[in-house]
Specification:
The complex is a heterodimer of chains A (about 675) and B (about 200).
Chain A: H1 32-37, H2 42-70, H3 81-116, H4 124-142, H5 144-147, H6 172-200, H7 213-245, H8 259-292, H9 299-312, H10 328-356, H11 365-387, H12 390-396, H13 400-430, H14 436-462, H15 479-509, H16 550-555, E1 556-558, E2 564-566, H17 570-573, H18 590-606, H19 609-627
Antiparallel strand pairs in A: 1-2
Helix pairs in contact in A: 2-3, 2-4, 2-15, 3-4, 3-6, 3-8, 3-13, 4-6, 4-18, 6-7, 6-18, 7-8, 7-9, 8-10, 8-11, 8-13, 9-10, 10-11, 11-13, 11-14, 13-14, 14-15, 18-19
Chain B: H1 10-13, H2 25-51, H3 61-64, H4 67-92, H5 96-126, H6 135-166, H7 175-201
Helix pairs in contact in B: 2-6, 2-7, 4-5, 4-7, 5-6, 6-7
The chains are: A mainly alpha (about 675), B mainly alpha (about 200).
């Protein structure tokens, strides 16, 4: 349980146990599945986050198609009311916690170290832990379909007392609570890790105000995660205690206050909105300057508006509760705060547009997605401001107008941006392009399908159609727009299929195409100065950063007339990835073992407390084995030149300490 | 780090203490973790304050607080912060025997506090305040129970440090490890000062 900065010195002359606890040998293999399950490389972890997130995107998308199929025509019985409740709940939970957040984590893991000129994150093993814990929580959550008597059926915000044992008698809500607790641990560990990385691991000269906007937005996101997750942790634990140990937190008959859950949930839930949107803001802030051939307009304003959103995001949660009876003063205060938070967001939109203004625009697929993000988010943002007007919001609450609004923000603002990021960084990650022609089909199908799905919901909502009702009667004027919406959702599904086909086909075609080279888009930030795909050690030599957009100024300079002049060919200034003398942190199995223990504890709480003992032993044992496993395996072959005289304790790459703050899960 | 010269000297690269902030990664991570803990305890304390008068007709925690008893156990916990500092100071000077002794004393004082909490919970239960009695009781036990779990984990960490020192793995060179565990320990104490003041000492309105 101790926190060890570096492998402890072995002054007594003893050697490290090769098998901590005598069970697992230190993984040495290169390649194969062992390489993936034991990796601590931030790039591999990022790829695994991406793959797993896309898997759950398909799961959540399938649930969405079921919902839309049920609502295509009035009075349908395709899904029972109970199943419908479970499916819309699990759709929301899956898309928020198992798709968008981990997909953003994929970008954060892969790109933050590269963009700040580091060789890995601050705590490589904790990074692996975050992924495996998240994945085990995600799988746990979905096993409720099989062993829990169905999914949670209380809506993604699971208001009490509806979430109590009386109204939700199956184990679905238990799986919801424990599953989100487990994924919450993962996000919390990841947040601490990435904040330390951003604050401590920057390359020489990479001041905070030279960090790319993406890294800045991801940093703000990690702070939001770090402070929002403990609150939902408390809420979920209280819910779990109510359901498991008969505590009285949410039982109104015993005098409990149903608003407690709402406040705790939305104090987390509103920052969560910015946790979802800010990574996408960051991504398009990289794409738009690159394809406008201009630096980002108002870098400082961009950074500070992101920070402002991060702060103000804490002061608007109760606008989700205008009809909950929180009193006129609260309503007025939160109305005003909600109007104000549109200001920094507006600053960002202005800056993206002014970046494009007068630029030489190249509408690649990534740029199309980025532009689409700006446009769609603006629509979602505007409908969001209408919610700050409490009298109007009272009419809109729990109607499809709300559903339309948050899908414009989360899908239009978040998902489109993340897809744009995928097209943009694909050559960097995998060493080949995604096909542009299919990419554009993907984009247009998704954009049209998205608007066809969620645009009509504005109309339906204003006509009074309630969300979360499993069907509707003919003759209320809902029929036509619901059918349109359903057709739109099928078009989105087609666009996703095109994306997967593009991924598969582009890889096959790549063998006949020239490799993209380090900097195919002629971009601006440091990750483009290394070969594609990124070599395992990232940088041959840690860059010495002299300005914002340092990499771009290696290639170009601005002459006396203010004209951009090319001063060097990309290949001449890019690194060639040939370094051999770089120490990397050794892989470890313990993050995976620790992560497997947690869902076993979860099943134990629900079914049989003895399982908790098994899971607890697995987790506790893994923590101790982890702590006494040195960060760098002294027996690992380094295969290079200059550092053999170093003692094991000094074999660390720049600033990478061991990630052993494993007691951090104390509250889970 | 930002003053480094352009020639990336290999050994400069390998200096584990060369961080941008000058604070080691581990210590910064602990500070961040503790800052998230503020939100955790903040939410639990708010929950108790919301519910402290909601007894559903039964006993309230505020009816049966034994202030003198809890004052003593609070004093014991606060003193453990002092012994924690003495442990760190001894390890930092390389006086390992003294350091180990103070680590043990710190863990024992924490153990006394936990023992006091067990006694308190037991006597409250006998006086009719069960975990499921009413919202106030649930909130009280959850908040103080969470704090107790944090103290217990702290004791586990202190004992792990003691065992490491006993095996010769913890030396003067790693005194920062003791410092980081100390951060956690002091934080848990500070939280208790809040809980004791707000929950025990301020009478219900």
């Amino acid at each position: 349980m101790t926190i060890i900065d570096e492998p402890l010195a072995l002054e007594s002359g003893e050697t490290y146990a090769e098998k901590p606890l005598g069970i697992l040998t230190r993984p040495q293999a290169q390649g194969g599945w062992k390489d993936w399950v034991s990796t601590v490389d931030h790039k591999k972890i990022g790829i695994m986050y991406g793959v797993a997130a896309m898997f759950f995107f398909v799961v959540g998308g399938f649930e969405a198609l079921l919902i839309r199929t049920q609502l295509a025509f009035p009075d349908q019985g395709f899904l029972s009311a109970d199943l419908y409740n479970q499916i819309f709940t699990m759709h929301g939970v899956t898309m928020v916690f198992l798709f968008i957040m981990p997909l953003a984590a994929a970008f954060a893991n892969y790109l933050i170290p590269l963009q700040i000129g580091a060789r890995d994150v601050a705590f490589p093993r904790l990074n692996a832990l975050s992924f495996w814990v998240w994945l085990s929580g995600a799988i746990f959550l979905n096993t409720s379909w099989i062993v829990g008597g169905g999914g949670a059926n209380c809506g993604w915000f699971c208001y009490s007392p509806n979430s109590g044992i009386v109204f939700s008698p199956t184990h679905g809500v238990d799986f919801y609570a424990i599953g989100l607790l487990i994924t919450g641990i993962a996000s919390l560990v990841s947040a601490v890790n990435l904040i330390v990385t951003c604050l401590n691991m920057r390359a020489p000269g990479m001041d905070l105000m030279r960090m790319p906007v993406l890294t800045w937005m991801l940093l703000v996101t990690q702070f939001l995660l770090a402070f929002a997750l403990p609150v939902i942790t408390v809420a979920l634990l209280l819910l779990l205690f109510d359901r498991t140990f008969d505590s009285q937190f949410f039982d109104p008959d015993a005098g409990a206050d149903p608003l407690l859950w709402q406040h705790l949930f939305w104090i987390f839930g509103h920052p969560e909105v910015y946790i979802i949107i800010l990574p996408s803001f960051g991504i398009i802030s990289e794409i738009i300057p690159t394809f406008s051939r201009k630096p980002i307009f108002g870098y400082t304003a961009m950074v500070f508006s992101g920070i402002a959103i991060g702060f103000m995001g804490w002061g608007v949660w109760a606008h989700h509760m205008f009809v909950s009876g929180i009193g006129p003063i609260s309503v007025a205060a939160f109305s005003l705060a909600t109007m104000f938070i549109a200001v920094p967001t507006g600053v960002k939109i202005l800056n993206w547009l002014t970046t494009m203004w007068g630029g030489k625009l190249h509408f690649t697929t990534a740029m199309l997605f980025a532009t689409g993000t700006v446009a769609m988010f603006t629509i979602g943002g505007l409908s969001g401001v209408t919610h700050s007007l409490a009298p109007a919001d009272t009419q809109q609450t729990d109607t499809y107008y709300i559903v339309a609004h948050f899908h414009y923000v989360i899908f239009g603002g978040g998902v489109l941006g993340l897809f744009g990021g995928a097209y943009f960084w694909w050559p960097k990650v995998f060493g080949h392009f995604l096909n542009e022609r299919r990419g554009k089909i993907n984009f247009w199908a998704m954009l049209i399908g998205f608007n066809l799905t969620f645009g009509p919901m504005h109309v339906l909502g204003l006509q009074g159609m309630s969300r979360r009702i499993d069907t509707y009667s003919a003759g209320y004027g809902f029929d036509f727009w619901n059918l349109m919406s359903t057709l739109g959702s099928y078009l989105i599904a087609v666009s996703v299929v095109v994306f997967f086909y593009n991924v598969w086909k582009s890889k096959k075609e790549a063998v006949d195409l020239p490799p993209p080279g380090p900097d195919p888009w002629d971009a601006r930030s440091l990750e483009w100065s290394v070969p594609s795909p990124t070599p395992e050690h990232n940088f041959d030599e840690v860059p010495q950063v002299e300005s914002f957009d340092h990499w771009w100024f290696q290639k170009y300079e601005i002459d006396d007339d203010g004209k951009v002049v090319r001063i060097a060919e990309t290949e001449a200034v890019a690194q060639d990835g040939s370094a051999t003398g770089v120490h990397l942190p050794s892989p470890s199995f313990w993050p995976l073992v620790l992560a497997i223990g947690l869902p076993i504890i979860g099943y134990g709480i629900i079914f049989n407390l003895w399982l908790c003992v098994i899971g607890g032993l697995l987790t506790g044992g893994a923590i101790y084995a982890w702590v006494f496993e040195p960060v760098d395996d002294p027996n690992a072959g380094h295969g290079h030149d200059d550092h053999h005289e170093d003692e094991a304790g000094d074999d660390q790459l720049a600033g990478v300490g061991s990630g052993s703050a494993s007691d951090d899960e104390g509250e889970g | 780090m930002s003053t480094a010269t352009a020639t990336a000297d290999a050994h400069h690269d390998h200096d584990p203490h060369a961080t941008n902030t000058g604070i080691s990664n581990n210590k910064l991570a602990m500070w961040l973790f503790l800052s998230t803990e503020c939100l955790l305890f903040g939410a639990l304390i708010s929950t108790y304050l919301l519910y402290k008068t909601r007894g559903n007709g039964g006993v309230l925690p505020t009816d049966i607080f034994d202030i003198p008893f809890t004052s003593v156990s609070s004093f014991v916990l606060l003193m453990s912060s002092l012994t924690m500092v003495l442990a760190l100071s001894a390890v930092a000077r390389g006086e390992m025997d003294r350091g180990k002794a103070w680590l043990l004393v710190t863990a024992m004082l924490g153990g006394v506090f936990i023992g006091g909490q067990v006694y308190e919970f037991t006597s409250f239960y006998r006086e009719g305040l069960g975990y499921t009695s009413n919202p106030a009781a649930s909130a009280f036990y959850t908040l103080t129970g969470f704090h107790g779990v944090h103290v217990s984990l702290g004791i586990l960490m202190l004992m792990s440090l003691w065992v490491s020192a006993q095996q010769g793995k913890l030396t003067q060179k790693n005194s920062e490890t003791v410092e980081i565990v100390g951060l956690y320990w002091h934080f848990v104490d500070i939280v208790w000062i809040f809980i004791f003041t707000v929950i025990y000492l301020i009478p219900p309105a």
